[in-house]
Design goal:
2 strands; mainly alpha; elongated; 60% helix; 2 domains
Length: 352
């Protein structure tokens, strides 16, 4: 209704304006350069009356969509594509999420509006990194490839909600089909699909778990949440929250999200992953009982060898090992006995 109200108002202002002649290609090219509401109305008539007839214009539509989702461009074209309903014939099964309402207090918008908001929020953050507070340094460190991945993920991450089943899986299916058809680079497609599949993992870990827990670090590392993927996922998590309900991105959530990212990039978490890769799977549970400070202080190679040796010992004799930190010159002395007993710590302390 808002579209038609705005259209009537604009037409009243331009009562003497004659609609320019031309077919679908002319209308699309005009909207690309002039995404005004009158141009949107022309494209909307094409889309609603004969969407199938736009198939011949797919290369032009893909070109427009690629420009529209790029976070480095303004939001006029992507807004025009949504309001003209051109997006309905651009993205597979998009009509399923048009007006799709989620009945809870958290999701403020229908799904199609949420997707538009996600792209617009991404563009705002690209222009003003301070909008994400403590995540600003991550925003400033993103490159052109990162923004491209984030733009496509913003468009597709919830598009599967109208298809039934797990919406992330359905969104991955649709995005894989479309992006390959659009000719997007394979490397970009892989990262977009991973981001869509994992777009809720960081928020669940940050807001429902303990970001200081080695168990949380290990679970996220096993899902590939590290390096560039971690940084993109952190930004996307914040964007998704703001696009769902801007008031929901509170200072509390900002702090928890930033703290989790910081912890995952510390030596403790990185060394824990290396240790887990080096140790046999059956010994993985031991890592969650290690002090993170110890994991960050010692070489993963030395610590994994020593842990393996201790875990494989059959006798009950006390074993001792000494390690030197190359960076600081400090020494670590490790005592180990297979079976726990009262007074064990006192025995070690006396030995020192």
């Amino acid at each position: 209704m808002a579209f038609y109200a705005d259209l009537d108002l604009e037409m009243a202002r331009r009562a003497k304006l004659k609609r320019p002649p031309g077919g679908a290609e002319v209308a699309l090219r005009r909207m690309k350069s002039d995404p005004s509401i009158l141009t949107q109305a022309d494209v909307r008539r094409l889309t609603v009356k004969n969407g199938a007839g736009l198939k011949d214009q797919q290369p032009l539509i893909v070109e427009m969509l690629t420009t529209a989702v790029d976070p480095r461009t303004d939001d006029k074209l992507i807004t025009a594509m949504f309001r003209s309903r051109l997006i309905d014939v651009s993205v597979t099964d998009f009509r399923r999420v048009v007006g799709y309402v989620q009945h809870d207090q958290y999701h403020r918008y229908p799904v199609d509006t949420h997707l538009l908001q996600a792209i617009r929020e991404l563009k705002r953050v690209h222009t003003r990194p301070t909008l994400l507070g403590r995540l600003k340094p991550i925003v400033n460190g993103l490159g052109a490839q990162d923004w491209k991945i984030l733009g496509w993920a913003a468009l597709y991450h919830d598009v599967g909600k109208g298809s039934g089943g797990d919406h992330s899986d359905q969104s991955v299916r649709i995005a894989r089909k479309d992006l390959a058809k659009f000719g997007v680079e394979v490397a970009v497609i892989e990262e977009v699909l991973w981001l869509i599949e994992r777009h809720l993992d960081l928020s669940q870990a940050a807001f429902r778990g303990n970001s200081a827990s080695p168990k949380i670090w290990r679970e996220l590392h096993e899902k590939g949440v590290e390096g560039a993927r971690l940084r993109r996922l952190a930004i996307f998590t914040a964007i998704d929250i703001r696009a769902t309900n801007r008031e929901a991105y509170t200072p509390w959530k900002e702090r928890l999200l930033a703290e989790l990212v910081e912890r995952l990039e510390r030596p403790e978490a990185k060394n824990l992953k290396l240790l887990h890769d080096k140790l046999e799977a059956k010994h993985g549970g031991v890592l969650e009982r290690l002090d993170p400070f110890l994991v960050g202080a010692l070489s993963p190679l030395k610590l994994s060898r020593d842990l393996s040796e201790c875990l494989q010992r059959k006798d009950t004799a006390v074993s001792v090992a000494c390690f030197k930190q190359p960076r600081t010159g400090r020494f670590w002395i490790r005592f180990h006995e297979r079976n726990d007993r009262p007074g064990l710590f006192v025995t070690y302390a006396r030995a020192l």
